Task: structure prediction
Amino acid sequence: MSRFGSLAEVCADDPGAFLSTDEAREEEALDPADLATVERALAELVYVSVPEELLESDYEGPAGWSPSQRPSGRPEISPLAA
Result:
């Protein structure tokens, strides 16, 4: 579970042991019924389950808008500001 909000990762083993939730299921390391139980519990606690494969992927920045369409209220940050 994340300390940065209502996010949770469900893993069949240690994070990174499998490439994806599907792979863990295919190798019978993650029982579909157990996964459903955990997903229900997280939903009841208003947590969002984040797939392990998403957390393991490279971050390429926010999607859905270009820098010229920066959402209002967010300041432009200079790449030289540090």
About this structure: The chain has a mean pLDDT of 76. Strands lie at 7-9, 48-50. Residues 37 and 64 are 32 Å apart (CA to CA).
